[in-house]
Specification:
The complex is a heterodimer of chains A (246) and B (383). Chain A is α/β, with parallel strands linked by helices and 246 residues long. Chain A contains 9 helices and 10 strands. By secondary structure, chain B is of the alpha+beta class. Helices cover 54% and strands 16% of the residues of chain B. The chains are: A alpha/beta (246), B alpha+beta (383).
């Protein structure tokens, strides 16, 4: 049993455990080469995340947190090992299959929000729905619902430059959940926010996990943010550490 | 359609840059349309030349006349189905600047040879019955505000038997063209009126227009005709009407080649300008494209979206340019008479539309491929 699964069996809720693991990472390696230099970013990582879990992934800079998150999102491919999400082996999917899979199963929240500055909040949130067969009115309905969930129902017509950092991140979260993905991946979602906004975002993520059953994996440097998760795993030098923070 | 707001929002990202790029495309297509009309106006004679018509002139020069007696002999040559003659008049209407072609013709024969001149039957009858009558093309009538029944005085180099150089005609008809390219700038009157009133070159005509039954036999018939009058006082030179018109056009210079050269340079520059704009546009939003890919936009869709942007840019700029060219062209001959048939030919408009899409595709393809190949992780890191 890996440190992570050990930690999971200690901390995951019984309800989550009963639904089985949504994420299964088995002996994953990721190697980068920079010139003649070989960098082992991930070295045999094993991790299981049950459905409905809220996992914080901590570790120092360069420990491989974001790399692991990118592998879970299907944005990058492992050099070795297997990544299975909801029963799908995403490490063996083609580019096209991965794109389709991402649009259906994953919502991604970035540290710097990464909203498209030329689109209104509504249009930003609508982006994942453009890939679905939904009609324009159905898309509008879904967008309104997602913005309502993040508390920005009245900001749909605003452009990102007209929103505060916390509001931008909430729009980004609305974009991540609008297509109702099974897995929400957050890369330091509070890293660029003040304390008040950070609290708002963390409350929101907790509500999404608690009330909407979203499975969340969140990379963070911030112990306070990690404390909001159901459990935390620690990554150092490309390996998951045995001790759980929480 | 659902992606249109996304495409449109990207074009509005740097409005000033987009407007300047649009303007440069607009100017290119304005030039394309306008110069196309100029080139067409110069080529018109060649284009409207009938494939079944030959032109016979004096072997030495077109300004030397041919005897009218040739007409019967031409008609008897196998392969010839009809003959008409025409004589250049060269008169001046009010001011030497008011140049237009005036020709003395045998009305019935001439109209038979040029069925593309559409003259109402009543006007035709009136003209045939009126020895000093004349007809003119619609363009000419509009240009000088002539109406049927008007007396039109021309001062010509032909001296009349009464010693004057003043010739007066009654406008009996106004003809229209069967197609937009039909020459509606001619002024035609009875050759008999000219021949009876003038003091010299009586019994002579300027040139013959000869219809043949089989255009593919044109070289043989032309040779046969010239042989017929070889070693006479007035030897002839017969060629197809197209070759005859080309000879005229070449005297001005190869306008078509000059215009093609100008447009090639213009389009090459626009290709670089618009291409550079698109490249810059993609470079500036590497992170955004990576976000779209993260959301699930497949590579093919990213390629299509960037291509669509450049095509939209080209379509808007090109359509405005061609539209503006059409507006300017529809105001008519910019030279006040040197290019009487001045219009944007249908084939030029179609070619313009094809060029618009080619420009859009050419300027967008490289940045679109770059965008498609973006690696999400690296792009997000760079952003």
């Amino acid at each position: 049993m890996t440190p992570a699964t050990a930690s999971q069996s200690q901390d995951a809720t019984p309800a989550a455990q009963s639904q089985g693991a949504l994420v299964r990472v088995r002996d994953v390696h990721k190697v980068y080469t920079r010139g003649s230099e070989r960098i082992d970013v991930l070295q045999g990582v094993n991790l299981e995340v049950p459905r409905g879990d809220f996992l914080a992934l901590m570790g120092p800079s360069g420990s491989g947190k974001t790399t692991l998150l990118n592998l879970l999102a299907g944005l990058d491919r492992p050099s070795g090992g297997q990544v299975e999400i909801g029963g799908d082996r995403i490490d063996s999917m083609s580019e096209g299959q991965l794109a389709r899979w991402r649009s259906q199963h994953v919502g991604f929240v970035f540290q710097l929000y990464n909203l498209l500055p030329t689109l209104t909040a509504e249009r930003n949130v609508e982006l994942p729905l453009l890939l679905t067969p939904l009609s324009g009115s159905d898309r509008k309905r879904h967008v309104a619902a997602a913005l309502a969930v993040v508390g920005l129902a009245d900001r749909g017509k605003h452009y990102p430059r007209q929103l505060s950092g916390g509001q931008e991140q909430r729009v980004a979260i609305a974009r991540a959940i609008v297509a109702d993905p099974t897995l929400l991946l957050c890369d330091e979602p509070t890293g660029d926010l003040d304390r008040k906004s950070e609290e708002e975002i963390l409350d929101l993520l907790q509500a999404l996990n608690r009330d909407h059953g979203k499975t969340i994996v969140m990379v963070t440097h911030n112990a306070h943010a990690a404390a909001c998760a159901r459990r935390t795993v620690y990554l150092n030098k490309g390996q998951l550490q045995p001790e759980a923070i929480q | 359609m659902r992606f249109l707001p996304l495409i449109w929002s990207n074009l509005r990202r740097k409005r000033v840059r987009t407007i300047f790029t649009l303007l440069s495309i607009l100017v290119a297509f304005l030039l394309f349309g306008y110069l196309g009309a100029v080139s067409n106006a110069f080529d018109l004679g060649v284009k409207i030349a009938g494939v079944d018509r030959l032109v016979m002139t004096h072997k030495v020069s077109i300004i030397l006349p041919l005897p009218l007696s040739y007409q019967d002999r031409i008609e008897q040559v196998p392969g010839v189905t009809d003959v008409a003659n025409a004589t250049w008049f060269g008169g001046v209407y009010q001011d030497p600047k008011n140049f237009f072609a005036q020709m003395a013709v045998d009305p019935e024969r001439y109209l038979r040879l040029y069925p593309e001149f559409l003259l109402p039957e009543a006007q035709k009858k009136a003209w045939l019955a009126d020895r000093t009558g004349a007809i003119c093309g619609r363009y000419l009538a509009d240009r000088f505000h002539w109406k049927i029944g008007d007396r039109i005085p021309l001062t010509a180099p032909w001296q009349k038997k009464d010693g004057s150089n003043s010739w007066e005609f009654t406008l009996d008809g106004i003809y229209d063209g069967a197609t937009p390219s039909t020459d509606v700038t001619q002024f035609l009157f009875h050759w008999k009126y000219l021949d009876e009133a003038r003091t010299r070159r009586n019994g002579m005509v300027g040139w013959y227009i000869i219809r043949i039954g089989h255009p593919d036999q044109a070289p043989q018939i032309a040779a046969r005709l010239d042989d017929l009058f070889a070693n006479s006082d007035s030897e002839t030179k017969t060629s197809t009407e197209k070759a005859f018109m080309q000879g005229f056009a070449k005297q001005v210079g190869n306008i078509g080649a000059i215009i093609t050269a100008i447009l090639t340079v213009v389009f090459f520059i626009i290709l670089l300008v618009a291409g550079n704009t698109m490249m810059q546009s993609v470079r500036e939003r590497v992170t955004e494209l990576a976000v779209l890919k993260t959301v699930g936009f497949p590579n093919g869709l990213i390629l299509t979206l960037v291509l669509c942007e450049s095509v939209v840019l080209a379509v808007v700029g090109g359509a405005l340019g061609l539209g503006l060219a059409w507006l300017l062209i529809s105001r008519g001959d910019p030279t006040g008479g040197a290019l009487p048939i001045f219009y944007l030919p249908g084939e030029s408009a179609v070619l313009g539309v094809v060029f618009i899409f080619l420009l859009g595709a050419a300027t967008g393809s490289l940045p679109a491929i770059q965008a498609m190949r973006l690696r999400v992780v690296e792009s997000l890191r760079r952003g």
